Amino acid sequence: MKTTFTFDKLPLKFYKRDVLTVARELLGTTLIRKKDNLTFAGIIVETEAYDGKTDQAAHSFNGMTKRNETMFKGGGYLYVYFTYGNHYCCNVVTGNPGGGCAVLIRAVEPINEIETMTINRYSKSTISDKELLNLTNGPGKLCKAFSIDLKDNSAELSDDQIFILNSKNNKLENISTSKRIGISKSVDLPWRFFITDNKFVSRK
DNA sequence: CCACGGATTGGCT
DNA sequence: GCCAATCCGTGGA
Questions:
Q1: What is the distance in angstroms measured between the alpha-carbon CA of A1 and the sugar C1' of C10?
Q2: In a domain, A91, yes or no
Q3: A5-23, pLDDT tens digit by residue?
Q4: Protein-nucleic contacts, chain A 76-105 to strand C, CB < 7 Å
Q5: Are A196 and A174 in contact (CB under 8 A)?
Q6: Measured between alpha carbons, how far is A131 from A164 in angstroms, rounded to an integer?
Q7: What is the pLDDT of residues A101-140, one digit of tens each?
Q8: Which nucleotides of strand B lie within 7 A of protein CB?
Q9: How many domains does chain A have?
Q10: Is the CB of A66 within 7 Å of strand C?
Q11: Which of A100, A144, A177, A178 has the greatest count of CB atoms below 10 A from its CB?
Q12: What is the CATH number of the domain that holds A66?
């Protein structure tokens, strides 16, 4: 069965704004990843902002390297990196070229092609309710489920392989803020955003 | 060349 | 809640 989506892609100008604004406004939008004729989809429920100019926790803080160069390309690119020997994480680059700003996508609520995500994550097609909640509730987990890796680094969100739909309801989402997770520098900045009480958020 | 540590995860206590 | 796994990128000698 083919599923279609009636929402529009977020325009390039959406990404070319302040990283904190984009991190907050990405909540409730829908991440789409097309691969092998499949359309993976999930509602973004948790994000973190990283700012190359003021934020020591940002990969871009100490300047451009081969690893982080996508962060300097300006709003509208996908920055994917490899970490802890096992995991990929995906970010949406924001702001102007040279700024080194990006939003880490930390969790999504899966809404399409869930069975393939299940196979990608657990190498089996039948899972428990608990395993469903663990399918995409972390930055490494959602990349595994959506089959996102370094080949997707520097992808343009205006293209058709990976993009984000403006799926926000008219009703305002209830948004919570907290310190970011898993970092050792600039630890006190309240730059993590998540949809309050959503079951697919990685942590309270 | 080598040492260090990481925007994590999952398994075990 | 704690901690090992795992390996590439980065920076210093």
A1: 47
A2: yes
A3: 788 999 999 999 999 999 9
A4: 82, 84-86
A5: yes
A6: 25
A7: 999 999 999 999 999 999 999 999 999 999 999 999 999 9
A8: 5-10
A9: 1
A10: yes
A11: A100
A12: 3.10.300.10
| Structure tokens belonging to residue A32 | 């789409």
Contact at 8 Å (CB) between A23 and A194?
Answer: no
Containing structural domain, residue A169: 12-195
| A81-95 exposure pattern, b = at least 16 Cβ within 10 A, e = fewer | beeeeeebbbbbbbb
Residue A173: band (very low, low, confident or very high) from pLDDT cuts 50, 70, 90: confident
Per the structure, the residue whose CA is closest to nucleotide C7 at C1' is A85
- Is A178 part of any domain? yes
Measure A84 CA to C12 C1' (Å): 22
Residue A110's DSSP bridge partners are A42
Could you give the C-alpha distances from A68 to A46, A62, A102, A200, in angstroms and in order? 22, 10, 11, 28
